[in-house]
Design goal:
Helix content: 25-40%
Mean pLDDT: 92
Shape: globular
Strand order of the largest sheet: 1-4-5-7-6-8-9-10-11
Largest sheet: 9 strands, mixed
Distance between the termini: 18 Å
Radius of gyration: 23 Å
Strand content: 5-15%
Structural class: alpha/beta
């Protein structure tokens, strides 16, 4: 069954959500919150932090430069097998702006984002974060034999955190926060879409970063790439050969996709029909300057993405050309340090992150078998098993966002075109699926255009050259987690979302910055506008290419990524 049809099936599933019901009164002090009664939960710490410094539990490195705040730690146990840890931080006195920002987690989670909490209160927001019900330190092993913990991870910890945090804030301040925002990238982006789909009334605004929303299909793609590279020793592409691919794709396409001719990344990779066969070795060629036939075949499979061998149907999009060699891209996520490192199964030895996540997800979540062997994975039957099992819990693929829209919610979604963790076309495809749902409603009601309908509440920004959630060669800093200066709503996601929610001003562009060596301390190297999809930024061919004003958001032609398509059965 396709991702789209699975998402539509989601709306027929009955979900039982236990809501926090309480009418708290204002606490006299932060310490007084220790006695707060919460359903199925206990406050384990309540303390005022006024020193400007806080050392998170289990760490020896303090967070510094913090405003005075009230810290509340909670352990929630909605089932007998649940242990959900969460923290709520509230700026003290006039330091609180009256608003709330809940933070998403990443990977298999297993820890609380204290640095994220520190950034949030530094900007005046009350904030909360959770370990998603895992204490496994980022490993997937917590899921073995614990179906309730999988539900906690999938969505229940999010709801527990939202309800507990708002109750604590109301108890301390005498009234709850308004407006409320959710902000997450990667698995946090999956969580952001869970919030919009399962709990559409909980947040007024949501920031969705590079979402791992189709977990079962995304991780099937990780296994696809692993098989392509490792099943045959001749197929492995070492990091040293990745510049061969990047340079060839840039040389072929950099002048035709609206970017700057001197860019070292592609402005819009959909405009680049790059075939790795163009760099296949010829007789007598230096093998350090080209790819073997087996390596070309592996690269083609990675670009094309996983397909059902029985039907040829695309399971998950493939990856885009042009930025393979950047250390934050293929070396980190796809090829790892070496073939031996990948086969070792040891992430500290340089195993590719895709292999770490893919193997452990299917071993511990799907098959409940620590001895899972990626070589045996079946891209027809095993994908179906994952979809019909844990997929119903962890996937957030329902494209019907009308309840969130009707609530008045606003959503900003971003993803890097060079993302080598979660293929960027996944975000484009989901956005277009949401538009398809709205198009059906528009045709029925005869009251407008589907693009106009979707952009009233949901805008997608594709970021040229950016890696997963940040980093990479392109403009990659715009309030997406980097400790960079907060400027204004034109340059910062959260301010842009806040202005949209409170003042009704939708972001028609966001200025993104690339700092020298990706360090704000080194100064600005260049800036570019990010445009709401389907618009794209085009260089005006005049003016300083490092200045965002030298680019214009234009309506992009309706093109289709050559890698995002079905293939003949048996491919």
């Amino acid at each position: 069954m396709s991702i789209k049809s699975k998402g539509l099936l989601f709306s027929t599933i009955s979900l039982v959500v236990v809501r926090v019901v309480c009418t708290p009164s204002s606490a006299a002090t932060c310490q007084g919150l220790a006695g707060l009664t919460l359903p199925n939960a206990a406050v384990t710490a309540a303390q005022s932090i006024t020193s400007g410094s806080f050392t998170p539990p289990g760490s020896t490195t303090p967070l510094t430069g913090l405003p005075p705040f009230c810290r509340v730690a909670v352990t929630s146990r909605p089932t007998n097998d649940s242990i959900i840890n969460l923290e709520v931080w509230i700026p003290l006195g006039a330091g609180w702006n009256g608003k709330y920002e809940q933070l998403g987690c990443g990977g298999f989670c297993g820890s609380i984002s204290y640095s994220g909490l520190g950034r949030a209160i530094g900007r005046g927001y009350a904030s909360a974060a959770t370990d998603d019900g895992s204490q496994a330190g980022g490993l997937a092993t917590f899921a073995l034999g614990h179906p309730e913990k999988i539900i906690d991870f999938g969505y229940r910890a999010l709801k527990e955190t939202t309800d507990k945090a708002k109750a604590i804030i109301a108890a301390f301040e005498g009234n709850g926060p308004h407006p409320s925002y959710f902000n997450g990238c990667s698995d946090g982006g999956r969580e952001a879409l869970q919030e919009a789909q399962r709990f559409p009334d909980d947040f007024d605004g949501i920031i969705v970063g590079s979402p791992a929303n189709a977990w079962t299909h995304l991780f099937s793609g990780f296994i696809w790439n692993e098989q392509a590279l490792l099943d045959d020793p001749a197929s492995y592409i070492p990091p040293s050969l990745l510049p061969v691919l990047s340079k060839a794709a840039i040389a072929q396409c950099v002048k035709q996709d609206g970017g700057v001719p001197t860019d070292i990344f592609l402005n819009d990779p959909r405009d680049c029909p790059f075939d790795p066969a163009s760099v296949q070795c010829t007789p007598g060629q230096d093998p350090t300057t080209c790819l073997s036939a087996a390596q070309v075949k592996a690269a083609r499979k990675i670009y094309s993405g996983p397909h059902d061998p029985r039907t040829g149907e695309l399971i998950f999009p493939g990856y885009e050309p042009g930025s393979e060699s950047n250390a934050a891209n293929w070396p980190l996520w796809i090829v790892g340090a070496s073939r031996a490192a990948d086969l070792s199964g040891n992430i500290s030895a340089g195993q590719a992150l895709q292999e770490f996540f893919g193997n452990n997800f299917f071993a511990d979540f799907v098959f409940q078998n620590p001895n899972f062997d990626f070589h045996t994975f079946n891209f027809t039957s095993d994908v179906a098993i994952a979809d019909d099992g844990v997929g119903e819990i962890v996937n957030s693929i329902n494209p019907d966002l009308r309840p969130f829209k009707n609530h008045g919610g606003k959503m900003i979604h971003y993803v890097g075109w060079a993302d080598s963790a979660i293929a960027p076309m996944n975000s484009v495809n989901y956005y277009q699926q949401v538009q398809d749902v709205l198009r059906t409603a528009v045709q029925r009601d005869h009251d407008g255009d589907s693009l106009e309908e979707i952009q009233e509440f949901y805008r997608l920004f594709m970021v040229p050259g950016m890696a997963h959630c940040g980093g990479g060669d392109g403009p990659n800093a715009f309030g997406n987690g980097l400790d960079a200066p907060v400027i204004d709503a034109e340059h910062d996601l959260l301010q842009a979302l806040d202005r949209w929610v409170e003042n009704g001003i939708a972001p028609d562009k966001i200025i993104a910055t690339h700092y020298i060596n990706n360090s704000p301390a080194n100064g600005v190297q260049f800036q570019r506008p990010l445009c709401p999809f389907p618009q794209a930024a085009r260089y005006n061919r005049v003016g300083d290419p490092s200045n965002a004003n030298s680019f214009t958001c234009v309506d992009d032609e309706p093109d289709r990524d050559p890698r995002d398509q079905n293939l003949p059965p048996g491919y």
